[in-house]
Amino acid sequence: MKILLTGCSGQVGYELERSLQGLGEVVAVDRSRMDLSDLDQVRDVVRAVQPRLIVNPAAYTAVDKAESEPELAHRINAQAPGVMAEEALRLGAALVHYSTDYVFPGDDPGARVETDATGPLNVYGASKLAGEQAIVASGVPHLILRTSWVYGMRGKNFLLTMLRLAKERDELRIVADQHGAPTWSRTIADTTATILAQARAHDFSADWWREHGGIYHLSSQGQTTWFEFTQAIIEQAGIDCRLVPITSAEYPTPARRPQYSVLSSQRLLERFGHVPHWRDALRLCMQ
Ligand SMILES: NC(=O)C1=CN([C@@H]2O[C@H](COP(=O)(O)OP(=O)(O)OC[C@H]3O[C@@H](n4cnc5c(N)ncnc54)[C@H](OP(=O)(O)O)[C@@H]3O)[C@@H](O)[C@H]2O)C=CC1
Ligand SMILES: Cc1cn([C@H]2C[C@H](O)[C@@H](COP(=O)(O)OP(=O)(O)O[C@H]3O[C@@H](C)C(=O)[C@@H](O)[C@H]3O)O2)c(=O)[nH]c1=O
Ligand SMILES: [Mg+2]
């Protein structure tokens, strides 16, 4: 069984390339083989590979830059997944896709469930929401896993940025009024593999997708702020650096960000089992 994996050089894609190994023949492609901004190429690669499953962690993830490149972000995050969905449907394949807490406006302190109303505050979030909608509208069997605040020991992420800055500077100013759950890239990949192992046990049947497909939140347990997350990082790394909590207003950025970004992973936990607390995952990752 062939699995077409996109974005294999990204944080989640890198972990998925390992986690998916036991499930089938993984054909992993990066930007050089499949550029998501080239919709014809996306179509051609899917047709050439003829996968039973497409797993798509590739995305335009530069949140601030997206504000000045809305068309490119939309092509990569919405149109390309739409093409993948269309092509998967033609092949009788299924699509696993990733989305974000940033589809929500973040004006409610409670944890968001899958059916809550969306309302992105920025271009990135809007482009990711449009991607979800294109997949759902296509009718392809799918899983859309919405995650949040992804980090790991490789790639571009908040953890590595803070480790670098904390070594360079005596003091860091970090926003303390945005709430969410940092999620380790490996948690996302391993959970994806767990879910897909269950699908495989049912031979990826249409019935399985009908019953278990759809949107799931997949985010670490617990919640924190960027400031408190940084405290945990710096403490575990044993770096001496003064951390100053600030408000979002004191850290102006091109993109607006949600204030409350906590996702409830309850639906996923009930069906597919365990997701670690963010502090436990951080400890494991940094070890
Ligand atoms: N990062 C985060 O904090 C969060 C991410 N998500 C979602 O999770 C998924 C995985 O994200 P994550 O692994 O963290 O993201 P990364 O930014 O680490 O990786 C994204 C990948 O997409 C690739 N990519 C970007 N543009 C193109 C393109 N035009 N053609 C082909 N490939 C391209 C990148 O390639 P290259 O290396 O060449 O740039 C990279 O491999 C995404 O859907 C993202 O929206 C959800 C919540 C939080
Ligand atoms: C570097 C830095 C950032 N910050 C703030 C800015 C921002 O509000 C917060 C996090 O910064 P980032 O640039 O990592 O945030 P951002 O890129 O918005 O992270 C988001 O990425 C996308 C892809 C997602 O899908 C989201 O789930 C989320 O992870 O920290 C500081 O307060 N001080 C600093 O020194
Ligand atoms: Mg960022």
From TrEMBL:
It comes from the Bacteria. It is an enzyme of class 1 (oxidoreductase). Its EC number is 1.1.1.133. Binds 1 Mg(2+) ion per monomer. One of its GO terms (molecular function) is dTDP-4-dehydrorhamnose reductase activity. GO terms for cellular component: cytosol. CDD domains: dTDP_HR_like_SDR_e. Keywords: NADP, Oxidoreductase. Its cofactor is Mg(2+). InterPro entries: dTDP_dehydrorham_reduct, NAD(P)-bd_dom_sf, RmlD-like-bd. Residues 1-286 form the RmlD-like substrate binding domain. Belongs to the dTDP-4-dehydrorhamnose reductase family. This is dTDP-4-dehydrorhamnose reductase. It comes from Pseudoduganella armeniaca.
